[in-house]
Amino acid sequence: MATKIRLQRHGRKGYAFYSIVIADVRAPRDGKFTEKIGTYNPNTNPATVDLKFDRALYWVGVGAQPTDTVRNILSREGVYLKKHLLAGVKKGAFDEATAEAKFEAWKADRQKGLNAIAAKLAADKKAAEAARLEAEKKANAKVQEKVAEKKAAEAAAKAEAEAAASENTEATETNAETTEA
Predict the structure, then answer these.
(1) Report field, pTM of the whole predicted structure over 0.85
(2) Which of 5, 59, 69, 166 has the lowest tally of Cβ within 10 angstroms?
(3) Alpha-carbon gap, residue 81 to 101, rounded angstroms
(4) Contact between residue 82 and residue 61 where contact means Cβ atoms under 8 Å apart
């Protein structure tokens, strides 16, 4: 029986997530499968992969052919590196402890890289938030200047109106005094 390691689609329209399954090549995409070895959710940032590492390594070791996407996922998770290291142990190139040490060093380096990317994303987000806050402060300052100018203009207009009213009152009083006299 020819087997493939492939993705089986689940989820709703526009929000797909996948199961990583071992299936016969003749079975439909979402049909019968032999074993489920993990899940893949591309909707998160970074994409979330939950993989049964030992079972994936077993199936790759017995010759199950992955699809292109699954091959990339397995490679990112280190299944192919582990297979390569185990082949080196079989050939006698190095012992199992050395292979395990190399694999652990690769995992630590990969985790360090993922942490660096996460830190960069967090720093970029913080910088964008600070830039947005500065832009908002500038916009608020402009609005406050316009409001202050408008209030000053209103106060000046009110002062002029009061001055004109007092002049009119004085003029009326002077006219009344001259008329009486």
Answers:
(1) no
(2) 166
(3) 12
(4) no
Q: Which residues contact 65 (CB under 8 A, 6 or more apart)?
A: 2, 3, 4, 5
Could you tell me the domains of the chain? 3-93 (3.30.1320.10)
How many residues are listed for the chain in this entry? 181
Structure token digits, residue 169: 């009152």
Stretch 82-92: mean pLDDT: 90
With CA atoms as reference, report the closest residue to 81 among 71, 91, 67, 69: 71
Average pLDDT value over all residues in the chain:
89
pLDDT at 181 over 60: no
- AA identity, residue 166: S
* Better-predicted residue by pLDDT, 163 or 142: 142
Closest CA to 83 of 17, 5, 25: 5
Cα separation, 150 vs 124, in Å, equals: 39
Contact between 109 and 116 (Cβ < 8 Å) = no
Contact 23, 6 (CB under 8 A): yes
For residue 69, how many other CB atoms are within 10 A of its CB? 14
